[in-house]
Amino acid sequence: MRLHNDDLQMICKLMFRLLPVQVLLAMASAVNSIVSSYFATNYVGMEAMSAVGLYSPIWMLLGAIANLIAGGCAILCGKSLGANDSKKLQQVFSLDLALAFLAAAVFTVLTLCISLFHLSGMFTADVSLWPAFERYVAGMAIGIIPYFLYNQFPVYLTSENKGNMTILASIVYIIVNLVLNILFVKVLHMEEFGLALSSAIGMWIFMAVEAYHFFTKDAHLKIAFDVIPWKQGTEVFRIGFPGAASYIYQTLRGLILNRLLESFCAAGSLSAFALANNVMSIFWALPAGMANVSRLMFSVSHGEEDRQGLVGTMKVMFRYFIPLMCIVDAAIIVSSPVITSLFVKDIASPAFAMTVSGLRILPLCMPLSIILMHFTAYGQVSGKSVFVNIASILDGVVCVAGFSMLLVHPLQINGIYIANVLNSVVTTLFVVLYAMFKLKRMPRNTEDLMVIPDSFGVTKDERIDISVKSMEEVIEVSKRVQDFCLEKGIDSKRAYLAGLCMEEMAGNIVEHGFVKDKKKHSIDIRVAHKNDKIILRIKDDCIPFDPKERNKLENGDDLTKNIGIRMIYQIMKDIDYQNMLGINVLTISV
What we know:
Blueprint: H1 5-44, H2 46-82, H3 86-116, H4 130-141, H5 144-150, H6 153-159, H7 164-187, H8 191-212, H9 233-264, H10 269-304, H11 307-334, H12 336-341, H13 350-361, H14 366-382, H15 385-411, H16 413-439, H17 446-450, E1 463-468, H18 471-487, H19 492-513, E2 523-530, E3 533-540, H20 547-553, H21 563-571, E4 574-580, E5 583-589
Antiparallel strand pairs: 1-2, 2-3, 3-5, 4-5
Helix pairs in contact: 1-2, 1-7, 1-8, 1-10, 1-11, 2-3, 2-4, 2-5, 2-9, 2-10, 3-4, 3-5, 4-8, 5-8, 7-8, 9-14, 9-15, 10-11, 10-13, 10-14, 11-14, 13-16, 14-15, 14-16, 15-16, 18-19, 19-21
């Protein structure tokens, strides 16, 4: 399938508009790690850094469960948006928050048990690290509930064009976390507990800033626990588990790697490995944000049965996301000694050298990892559970742990770093091999790699796609639509009305929407023939404009105003409008 460049640019523009919110959300947790690392190494000691490293598998598990719920509900949310089902969207929103709160409450109790009942031996055999680890765990437990909840809000804020609330919450969180670390760790000397408490309080504030919108009169979605469809909870876990499985497996991987570092590597390797990974977490926010944006785009396209949207989303990843990641990776590698010196002041220490090595090797796996993250997101949306589960096992534990076991003895900590790079190579090959297995041949293009079923959506022979950028192009729309309808056996009356409808609507957008700002705009028109019906869909990236509301407002005014819209609403009965992720979408059935 050939994707028009204008259509790809609209998809690209939308994805990059959504990207900052998702990156900042992913970065919020990374900021916790990076700030904790700085204050741990500079004001507490390397034992505190080891405690942070030991807690990483627990944090990964918590993130997996939070993302399982968020991912499953995000896909249901996207499909509800694509199907223009506001009632279902409200139910998904309420179910999401209820599940997140209940899961967070359970894990808060379980995490506190580690500290209260001195269960540190489950995570490290080094008795000297137990007190520091338990103090850190106790503080982090306070922030589990807001952590689960603030991970749920962004997709709904985005659907209401309030993504800036997540940006604001992230900025506030960064400031609060930093100020509290200065107070609790540097001034009050609360050590590991202070490190964790700073993060926990920051998470409560992050959640409060995001949640504020849903208590205002402008919110379409309301926190309403009386409409929770509890039976759909199993569907959320079924859909969300494949995407979160990799994080669950990474919990096991973290426990294995910590044991390997303690058993086979030089003293200080555990803290150096934790520091390198915590520093990298700030940069992993970029691919994580990319994957979250694409998951939402895949969900909406799947809900619309838009084959072109699915392929376009994946092409944006290949053409724009990966090159951007390569530039960031090059910057990390070049500046690795400078970055490390912020945390380890003694440049002659083994910890300094081991951390620098990590920052030089680990970035190499990120570009290829983006490929797997996107295909996993697509597989999660489209129900490719076998692919997603195998990919999650390979990426989450098998490849990294397996290569680490082989390389840790001869290469020490560098062997574990290199194992991550080899993992990304193997998982990328798996994407290609899976497509070859399903197609029984070598994939030739992006659509082949995605293995989109032939039965999905409308075939290219049953649709036409038209891009409009000017009033001159609008004039041609009517004839092209009418000719297409006649070719498909639609009677001349309906064919004429379909062409007239598209010309009027496209002309109205160019005349009124294109001039509202100084940005360049385009209109994406799709005409599909399905079950002897003609489905007209028109998308534009102008300011929100509901033609139905305009028709109601001006029905009693001068009859010469907006005569095109008036006529369409008199003739056509099945007209749906929604502003979806900042894009106007009008669907008309003829």
